[in-house]
Amino acid sequence: MKTSGWLAIAAALFAAAVAYDGRRDLLALPQTREWSARPADGENGTLAGVNLRVVFARAAPLPEQPDSAVLLVRLALSGPQAARKAWLDCSATLIGPDGSRWLPVTGFYDAGARLAPDGQSNLACMPMPFNEPPEGGEILSDQAYMVPVSLLGDLTLRVSAQGTRPEALDFALAPLMQPGF
Amino acid sequence: MRLLRNLAIVLSGAAALAGLQATTPYFDDAFSPFVTRARSAELAHGRLFDARFTEWRLAGHVGVTINGAPTLRGTDGVFLIAGIELSDVRQTLPISAVWLGSSGRRYAASARFQGSDFALETRNFNPHVPNAARILFELPRDEVVGGQLVLAVRGSSILDSELHLAPPPGKLVQQAFYEVGG
User: Fold this and answer.
1) What would the pLDDT profile of A4-16 be if each residue is shown by its tens digit?
2) Nearest CA in chain B to A68
3) Is residue B25 within a helix (H) or strand (E), and if so which, with residue range?
4) Which three-class secondary structure state does DSSP give residue A12?
5) B155 with B81: CB under 8 angstroms?
6) Mean pLDDT, range A90-97, rounded to an integer
7) Which residues pair with B81 in a beta bridge?
8) How far is B66 from chain A (nearest CA, A)?
């Protein structure tokens, strides 16, 4: 056999060894990426048998940084428990027009009290909380973000979970502006 | 003659293998972060954020509000207050800061200021919003001059950026007491 043939066999064996050794990481990769995001139908969407609803999105500028705002997004999640099990590691990320990503921040503990119409705060997105409502009820979650005021009208909320990725749902947000945080 | 030639081949192979074994890099070396160095006042570019080292000063005591209570902290060494400015932040990030002293030792940001503006542990940096911060280190005095500020995304920095920032130009201000916001 020619040298090039041996080299080709060696390259193929090397690629096979890499694929075999990294098979678990390769199979797990789609669970960490949102490659297949599709737009939701307005404020409602369904993904992997679970219904999602954006209850509200409200923002208020920060007194010490008027160009920045706290944006509070409340999500409602409902569906059979078997489907909700796939929603572990629920992720709710804001995507900007240039691809920038905002993750929920933990510093604004009183965002719900200040911005929510009912003055209540909820935990971050989770599919099976300890105070789970009866079957068919909605599980509410609050996410607070720190975003620039100038981009408030151009943000997309991308929601996914471990059992849905690489599929995700995109919600176009139109936050209601409050006078001050 | 043939025996000698075969022996030489085996010995040279064994020597090559021993050389490979002796020079095998440790995990931390093989997967170390990609270091980007910036000279004084220069902007350093990382994978997820850019950063500039904007000011530095020394203080013997620091007055700070911790969890709402005015608090005074002293040290047998010296407090280094480092000002940074992040830009082009691509996603919400927690940042870790280390002072690389003149001896090569690495000093983590002081944990004696948790609950204050200095605490990086509870701080996130976000895209397109002002991202200035002050970091406080507690150091031996001789580790300050000749040192560098090292910034990275908090958590694992395996094969990620690590920014090494030289101190800003100008004289290093030294004061007995520094008050946050003062």
Assistant:
1) 999 999 999 999 9
2) B129
3) none
4) helix
5) no
6) 96
7) B57, B136
8) 15
Task: Indicate yes or no: CB of A100 within 8 angstroms of CB of B127.
Answer: yes
CA distance B75 to chain A (A): 29
> Tokens standing for B171?
């004289």
Stronger pLDDT, A75 or A137, i.e. the higher one: A75
Task: Report, as an integer, the average pLDDT of A145-156.
Answer: 96
pTM above 0.90, yes or no: no
DSSP of A46-90, one letter per residue?
EETTEEEEEEEEEEEEETTEEEEEEEEEEEEEE--HHHHGGGTT-
Task: State mean pLDDT over A129-141.
Answer: 84
* Helix or strand holding residue B54 (H, E): strand B50-66
Whether the Cβ atoms of residue A158 and residue A166 lie closer than 8 Å to each other = no
State the pairing for strand pair B44-45/B50-66: antiparallel
State whether B91 and A101 contact (CB < 8 Å).
yes
Rounded Cα distance, A16 and A35, in Å? 25
ipTM of the complex: 0.85
The distance of B8 to chain A (nearest Cα, Å) reads 26
Q: Residue B168, class by beta-carbon neighbours within 10 Å (0-12 exposed, 13-18 middle, 19+ buried)? A: middle
Q: Residue A70: CA atoms inside 13 Å, Cβ hemisphere, count?
A: 24
Q: Which of A96, A105, A106 sits opposite B127 (nearest CB)?
A: A96
B67 has a chain A CB within 8 A of its CB: no
